[in-house]
Design a protein that fits this description.
Helix content: 40-55%
Largest sheet: 8 strands, mixed
Radius of gyration: 23 Å
Order of helices and strands: HHHHHEHEHEHEEHEHEHHEHHHHHHHEE
Structural class: alpha/beta
Strand order of the largest sheet: 3-2-1-4-7-6-8-5
Strand content: 5-15%
Number of helices: 19
Length: about 525
């Protein structure tokens, strides 16, 4: 495994990208279809193990040692374990605060000059592939097609792949009954390997004709000039950048309290955390949509990991390990925020499970990973993918202990929090969480969603739901690791005028019964 990890070498990666781009251009110029790697066209049916043998052995040895220590010296062991968890918790929160602070001071997101954008002529635009993975979204087809047609990009330079699952007869019938624009190609994905978005995207990648490629979900409404901005950015940034992540936000934030919390969280994630990761030169976990790629580089990476349920975040890490870069592009795609709690739990548990999968898979050889990434990026990776996920499991435990102590003043709770440990816990629990609440408020201010500020102060309730989803993810990590829980959409519709930018004109929403 260690030999498979590419060093993070910029000069070599730029040269490799240039060679792959030349080869890709020759294939496309001849009108041929590039042969994808075998892992793209035919994903393995057998899923990799969740943990390697060495990881299982390490976990068993650690649990045995801790259990033995509890048997010999229970109080001292409890204090030590508590201290380690609190330091872990504090480090994760501190890392997020550092990233947000970097983004506030010097936002690294790429802003395309408006004059340069207006000067870009249609005949200068390259072929652009758009992947549209759709599963059980028959009611969303009209909105999906309308959103693509509304893009400010010549249709004769679009290569749109509408990706349908073989057994999704309802959606296939809905598509068969429509007269799609000429740039659309319907691709029926064979039911081979794990079901999910990465399998469908790999099928589209195998047939991609564009120099650049982007993914949109069924409910997405990107800003009209997003593809043009991507082209301008790719032509002006360092050639080592092979992926541009557009910012994501929600058009139905005012639907209920959950959508307001979700919108504030997304504003933090895409407006602060990801630009912060870019500023410190660390791996950027991609969002599930609006990832703009250099197609040749994506093919060289063998596309998406079919068994990972957050294939986007895992791909972002592999881009970094391949010596390439991801940058945040200052343009927004508006999605439908999940507005029903059960649906939200299913979606969030899948995301957390995927982060667990990604962290465990890449930490099978930690020393080799650290040599490849560099010490700083390795630390950020472990805090972002590992610690932040584990903190979702720890958070309700410490809130419970705090509540019980205030109500009962139990002696054993005081005993496991000697004064130095208590101070660390207070910093992590109150100061750290308070700072995160303030950043959530800041997320609402960043997007000028002033009506959401009062709800942002109730963010700890939202974190409780996140912890519930995290425990569900932990169970599924070992019981159903590759199971893809479908997120239902279509409860709100985006019905503003096709030429109106969402950031300037409030969308008209129609709740769906």
């Amino acid at each position: 495994m260690a030999a498979e990890i590419e060093p993070h070498n910029q000069e070599r990666s730029v040269d490799e990208r240039a060679q792959r781009m030349r080869a890709w251009s020759r294939v496309r110029a001849g009108g041929e279809v590039a042969s994808p790697a075998p892992s793209i066209d035919a994903p393995p049916v057998e899923a990799p193990p969740v943990m390697s043998r060495s990881q299982v052995t390490f976990a068993l040895v650690l649990l045995t040692m801790v259990g033995g220590a509890f048997a010999v010296a229970p109080l001292a062991t409890a204090v030590l374990v508590n201290c380690v968890m609190l330091m872990f918790f504090a480090a994760a929160n501190a890392m997020k605060l550092v990233l947000m602070n970097r983004a506030w001071k010097n936002n690294a997101a790429i802003v395309v000059d408006r004059v340069r954008l207006q000067q870009l002529r249609d005949d200068e635009l390259p072929m652009y592939t758009i992947l549209l993975p759709v599963f059980k979204e028959a009611s969303m087809i009209d909105q999906l097609v309308a959103g693509i047609v509304a893009l400010d990009y010549p249709q004769d330079r679009l290569d749109v792949k509408l990706l349908l699952e073989e057994d999704d007869t309802e959606t296939r019938r809905a598509v068969d009954g429509r007269d799609l624009p000429p740039c659309f190609e319907v691709v029926v994905v064979a039911d081979i390997g794990p079901r999910g978005k990465p399998r469908a995207c790999n099928a589209g990648l195998a047939r991609a004709k564009g120099e650049f490629l982007v993914i949109y979900d069924a409910e997405d409404r990107p800003e009209r000039d997003q593809l043009r901005k991507s082209v301008c950015a790719f032509r002006e940034v360092d050639p080592n950048v092979v992926c541009l992540q557009a910012k994501l936000n929600y058009f139905n934030r005012g639907h209920n309290v959950l959508t307001r919390w979700f919108t504030a969280e997304y504003s933090i994630w895409f407006d602060q955390l990801l630009p912060g990761l870019q500023a410190v030169d660390a791996a950027i976990p991609l969002g599930g949509t609006s990832n703009h790629f250099v197609t040749a580089s994506l093919v060289a990476l063998d596309g998406w990991e079919a068994h990972n349920v957050t294939e986007d975040a895992e791909l972002g890490l592999r881009i970094f390990l391949g010596g390439w870069k991801t940058a945040v592009l200052d343009t927004t795609t508006y999605e439908e925020a999940t507005s029903r709690y059960g649906n939200w739990i299913r979606q969030r548990s899948r995301w957390v499970k995927g982060y667990m999968q990604t962290w465990l898979a890449h930490m099978r050889h930690p020393l080799a990973l650290m040599r490849s990434m560099g010490a700083k990026a390795f630390l950020v990776f472990n805090l972002f993918f590992g610690a932040c996920t584990i903190c979702l499991l720890l958070n309700p435990f410490y809130w419970f202990l705090t509540a019980v102590w205030f109500m009962t003043r139990l002696h054993w709770i005081e005993a496991i929090f000697p004064r130095p440990v208590l101070y660390v816990g207070l910093v992590g629990l109150f100061i750290g969480n308070a700072a995160c609440v303030l950043f959530t408020v800041g997320g609402a201010f960043t997007r000028r969603n002033y009506a959401d500020v009062k709800w942002a102060f109730l963010a700890p309730l939202y974190w409780l739901f996140m912890s519930i989803a995290a425990y569900k993810a932990l169970v599924q990590l070992f019981s159903k690791p590759s199971y893809w829980e479908k997120t239902e959409h279509g409860f709100c519709r985006y019905e503003d005028a096709p030429d109106a930018r969402p950031s300037e004109v409030a969308p008209i929403l129609r709740p769906v019964d």
